Amino acid sequence: MLPYGRQSIDESDVAAVTAALHSDWLTTGPEVDRFEAAIAERAGVEHAVSVTSGTSALHVAYAAAGIEPGDEIVTTPLTFVATAATAALLGAKVVFADVDPATGNLDPAAAEAAVTDRTKVVSGVDFAGVPVDGAAFRDLAERKGILFLEDAAHSIGSTQDGRPVGSLADLTTFSFFPTKNLTTAEGGAVVTADADLAARARSFKNHGLVRDKAQQRYPEEGPWHQEVHAFGLNYRLPDVLSALGTNQLARLDAFVARRAEVKAAYDEALADLEGVQLPAAPEGAAPAWHLYPLRVPAERRREIFESLRAQGIGVQVNYIPAYWHPVFEDLGYQRGMCPVAEDYYSREISLPMFPGLTDENVEQVITAVRTAVAG
Questions:
Q1: Active-site residues: which are they?
Q2: Residue 311 belongs to a domain with what CATH number?
Q3: Which residues carry this modification: N6-(pyridoxal phosphate)lysine (predicted)?
């Protein structure tokens, strides 16, 4: 079965991990610092905080933003549930707003309509690797006195108007899961240009520990002394995985280029299929295509999906609208809230998209799609 996503690991990655294993540090060591510096440079900001997953990156980012019970966040339902769940775990009310029918990204106008005086964060998701409208969301955030968080789990390596994803929002979160644009096996990061947000993120991901004596309440306790002023968790990414990430980051441009080639091949071969809609990006966006979200007639989606699986193409669907999950249903959320997102979901099938796809693999996918759509 040809999967919809797969990591790309070569001998240089293996060598980087092996070197870390032979070092004196398996965690909280120099490879973490090196990886964070490289991520910050790629994102075009001063601060990067590595964490154990894209989900923990979101949790850390919301904590850094000061989310507390009674606050609201506005976000898209067309995302993995973690975008909303991590805010809910901090006590926030999640307010879902609808998406742009062309890209599947959070619609700035719909998001603005959902903002109230209790909103603290608006969270856009770069669906499939296409950056959200950063200018519109930054303007919204500044006018409303809230923070703009970009869930860039799909989009490290993407740019908008020449600016890298990571520099567009107050807080940006990355995921380094194996199917993503680069991998640390499990891992993620929070990046920001704001030193205070970075400090709060770094504290939360390390139990909230305060080791700086100038900030401690009881600094004379002894040289061993450390304090916790606010609760945090252990979301530390180890050196072994950081070493893999640094090496993967050096290969990111090649990964992005190959994804673009696969996207172009799919576009050319599938454009004439009746009832099929190809993924699009707005002017100025240069996506690192994490997904290829093909849209097919809703009434035939399952039939086409099952045909592709039967032909050995491991397609996926991204995503079940977040508020359809029983955990949100039990909180009173109802289907029908965001009809554009629900329509997008009803027609979406993610085709295989990863750098290791050969030209032969791409042709295999194209042939299978054309067979499945023809019925």
A1: 180
A2: 3.90.1150.10
A3: 180
